[in-house]
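ok so dumb question maybe but i'm new to this and my supervisor (M.) told me to 'just get the structure for Leucine-rich repeat-containing N-terminal plant-type domain-containing protein' and walked off. so i did the thing. is this what she meant?? sequence i used:
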Amino acid sequence: MSRYIVDHMYGLDLSSNQLSGEIPVEIGDLEGFKSLNLSSNRLTGSIPYSISKLKDLESLDLSNNELSGNIPPCNPTRAPEESANEEEDDEVIDMEWFYWTCGAVYISTCLAVFVFLCIDTRWSQEWFYRVDLFIHHLQRFKRSAFRN
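this is what came out, is it supposed to look like this??
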């Protein structure tokens, strides 16, 4: 039952719990974890290499302990440059879809207005009346501005 719970966890925060001793090697068995926080304890020794088995790890906080050595690489299959390039590629694809979608919405709206004005004579007459009235007001404004 306890392994079932661990398999469905994605993070562990044991910060500020006054834990002491070394980080157990079994920490690498928590492969699905995305976040691990063991900060502000009294942990000593080196950081176990088994942490490198945490392939999905996005956040690791071991600060404020008395640990020694380097943190093993937790995601050796993916270089930082690759993930940055993938993010840039995703943005370009997203922007391309954005422009295509905007263009399609604009064209669809123009066609809908055109069809709407051609089919329904009552609404088209009202529309053209309003446009004619607007042009008339603009012409009056233009004449009065030149007189002053």
